[in-house]
């Protein structure tokens, strides 16, 4: 009978010890993993041979287009919605982020045959 009581007391002590230890340490908190939002890669338009190498582009709202002048003569990127570069010399760049949905036509005023269109979707 003493063995049964001793075993019962031992089990109660072990269970109470486990309960005490888990309550003392508290709940485990996991550090939230940050969610990475991919950054859109800019669309590159090369100006060469008196032409824009991509004259029709479709992008999403918030995307950026970068024009790089590879011609030996200067060019501009001029168009709708505030699109207005300075005169770009050889290897100079101009970038513009499109934050409005719509269709934007652009051209190079000194060279009117140079035209392009950018369609911005939501």
Automatic annotation (TrEMBL):
Highest taxon, organism lineage: Bacteria
GO-annotated molecular function: copper ion binding; electron transfer activity
Pfam families named in the record: Copper-bind
Domain Blue (type 1) copper positions: 47-120
Keyword check for Zinc-finger: no
Record SUPFAM superfamilies: Cupredoxins
Alphabetized PANTHER family for the sequence: BLL1555 PROTEIN (PTHR36507:SF1)
Name this polypeptide is given: Blue (type 1) copper domain-containing protein
Species assigned in the record: Candidatus Yanofskybacteria bacterium RIFCSPHIGHO2_01_FULL_41_26
């Amino acid at each position: 009978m003493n063995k049964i009581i001793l075993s019962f007391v031992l089990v109660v002590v072990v269970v109470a010890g486990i309960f005490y230890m888990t309550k003392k340490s508290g709940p485990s908190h996991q550090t939230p993993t940050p969610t990475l939002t991919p950054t859109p890669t800019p669309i590159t338009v090369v100006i060469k041979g008196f032409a824009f190498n991509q004259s029709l582009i479709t992008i999403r709202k918030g995307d950026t287009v970068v024009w790089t002048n590879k011609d030996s003569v200067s060019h501009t990127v001029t168009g709708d919605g505030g699109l207005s570069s300075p005169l770009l010399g050889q290897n100079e760049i101009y970038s513009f982020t499109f934050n409005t949905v719509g269709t934007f036509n652009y051209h190079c005023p000194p060279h009117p045959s140079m035209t392009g269109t950018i369609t911005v979707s939501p």
